[in-house]
C-alpha cells in the first residue's frame, strides 16, 4: 500500500427504475463533493448501465494506481460476498499494475437505522402506543446471515425507538412475506401499521411492497396502514461510505466469516460452501 489517496469506485445494485438510477447518481455526486481531490466513479451490478465491469474499465486511465471499490449494499449477502467481489478479482487479474481494495457492505449501524426512522411518524399519536406497529421490509436473500440481520434491525428499532411492535418481512426469496408480516403484527394487536421498506433506492420491489400492503389492507378494514418509500440519497450514506473507504485504505476491513454460507458448511446450504467468486451480468435478475 502506498501513501497516495486511492480512486473510489462505488457499485450500486441496479434497477430499471429511472428514479432509482438517478438517486444513485445523486449520491455519487454527493460523494464527489465530500472526497474532493479524489476521483469517484460508479457502476451497476445489474439491470442498468453502466454495468460495473464496463464502467470500471472506463474509469481506469494510464495514471490509475489504486482503486477502492465499495459495494453499496445494505447487508452482506451474495452480491457483496461473491458477485462484486468476483468482479474485483477479475479486475486484479486484468490490470496487474493497479492495486484494488475492496470495502465491506454498509452493514448495521445506529446512524443508518436512525436515518431510516427519520421518515417514521406514529399514524395516530393520540391513540394507544401498543396498537402502533412497524413492518420493516427487507429485500430478501438466499443467505440466512443477511436475512437474520433484518430481524436484528427490527429488534434494534424496538429497543432504541421504543416501538412496541416491530416485525420484519421480505419481498422476495424468503419468508415471512409482506402479507404474512402484516398479519403477524395485526394478531399482536396492531391497529395502525407503518410499512417501512429497508431499501436504499427506488425500484420495482418498492412498488411491489406497496401493492401487497394495500391488497392486504383491503381485507383488514379495521387497520390503518402507512406505506413509506426508500431511503434515497442521504448524508449518512456518504459518511458510511467514507468509513468503508478508510477501513479498506487502512487494510482494516473486517467481515465476519462465522456465519457465511460460502465459508462455513451450513445445513440446507451445503451447495454454497466453497463456491468460487463469480461475476454477475446485467440480466441475471429481472425484478428490481
From TrEMBL:
Signal peptide: none annotated. SUPFAM superfamilies: Chelatase (SSF53800). Pfam families: CbiX. It comes from the Bacteria. Its EC number is 4.99.1.3. GO terms for molecular function: metal ion binding; sirohydrochlorin cobaltochelatase activity. The keyword ATP-binding does not apply. Keywords: Lyase, Metal-binding. InterPro entries: CbiX-like, Sirohydro_Cobaltochel/CbiX. This is Sirohydrochlorin cobaltochelatase. It comes from Acidithrix ferrooxidans.
